[in-house]
Specification:
With about 425 residues, the chain is α+β, with helices and mostly antiparallel strands. The chain is about 45% helix and about 15% strand. It has a four-stranded mixed β-sheet. Helix 3 runs antiparallel to helix 4, helix 5 runs antiparallel to helix 7 and helix 9 packs across helix 11. The termini are far apart.
Length: about 425
Amino acid sequence: MQLMYKVCDPLHGYIYFDEDEQKVIEHPYFQRLRFIQQLGFVQYAYPGAVSNRFLHSLGVCHLAGRAFDSIFSNSKAKLPLSDGKKKQFRKVLKLAALLHDIGHGPLSHTTEFLMPSLKKLNLKKFLEKDRPARHEDYTLKFIMDSELRQIIQSTGLEPLWLARLLHPNLTGAEDFFREGDLDFLPILRQIISSDLDVDRMDYIHRDSYYCGVNYGRVDSNWLLTHFTFHQVEDKIYLALNREALWTAESFLLGRHHMHLTVYFHHKPVVYEKMLFNYREYEKEPWTLPCEVEPFSRFIDSSLFEKLKSSEGNEWAARILNKKPYHRVYEISYFSPDSNRMTDEEEQIKVFEKEFSAEGAPFISANSSDHSLQPILGRVQKDRVFVKGWRPDKGKTLFEEQAIFKLQNRQIHRIYVDPDYKELAQRIIQTL
C-alpha cells in the first residue's frame, strides 16, 4: 500500500503512515487530540510542556511498528507465523497504538475523576461491572460504538481485535490471535502496555524533551533492536535480550525520576487538587459527557470555559487567576508494603490535625495516589522476560531488576491557604 501521510516529529524525525492509518488520523475524533494537553497543568512548572496527545499517538504508532519488525522480522529465532497473519498482526497493532489514547478527557489524566460511572457509557455488552469510568473505557467506546468502528472495518479489520490490545478486561476474538498452537495476544498487548512498552517509551522521552529535562532521554533505539520473544507453554510474551538490560534499567529509572520531578512537581499537583475541590464544591456536580459526540467536543478550552462559568466557586477562581495554595511542608520517605504507618506518616497526621484545630485550610498530596504513579512489575500475568545465553531459561524483568523496589519511595506535601502560611509554618516549627 502506498504511503500517504508523512509527519516530521521532533523525536523520531520523519514518520510515515499508510492510507488506512491516514483515514483514522484525519477523522475529527482523532484530530481532537490536538487540543488535549499531554501533561495537563505541568506547563505551570515547565513552560515548554505544551505537547499534545495527537503527536504522542503518532509517535506510539510509529514505535509499535518498529517494535513489531524487531520481534517478528529481525529476530534470530523465527516465529512460526505466516506472512498473511504477520501483516494482519502488524496492522492491528499499529492501529491500536494509534488509538490507544483517544479516550482522554481535557488535560489528559488530570480530569479522569470527572468521568461518569461506567454503566453510563452503555458498554455493558463488553464490561459488566460498574465503577468510575477511565480513559481506557472511553477509548473502547470510540472503537466499538462510534463512526471509528466503520472506519476500522473499512480497513479489513474487526474493531474488537484492536480493543483486545487496549482494554485489560475484554474477552473475545481469541482465535484471531492464535496461529497454530500459539497465542500471540500477550506479546501484542505488551508492546503497547507493559513495563517496557512503546507508549511509555514515547511519552517519557517526549515529556522530558518538552519540559527541558534529561531524565527520560533513553536510548530507545537500542531497546527496540533488542526486543524479542519468549514462549511459556502456548503463549508468546515480550522479551528483551540481556545486552540491553542496563538500557532498560536506565529507562525504568528515568520513568521513576520523571514521576518525582515532573509529573508530581509541586506546582501542577496543587492545581490538580484544586480542580478536584472545584468539582466537589460545585452546586451541581457534573461529569464529562457520556456519548462520543459531545465528549469529542469537550477539549481543554471547554474545561476552562466551564471554570469561568462557575460563579462563587473559590477553587475555579484560584485556578483561573493562578492563586494556588502554598506548599509549607514536603517529605520524601520509603513506605514498606505493610499496614503499619511510618514515622513520617504519623508526623504528617499530627500536622494535619493541628492545622484543622487552628482553622488553617490545607490540601495534602501523596505521590502514591497520583494518576501517573509508576506501578512497576505488578502485572505478573503479562510479564516481560529477559533472554540470556540460555534462551529457554528466561527470567522476568521484575526478577532481574531491583529498581522496582524504588516504587516504595513516596513524597508527601501539605499546601495551605496563603493567608494561613505563617501560621502553618509556626505549627511545623514547634511540633
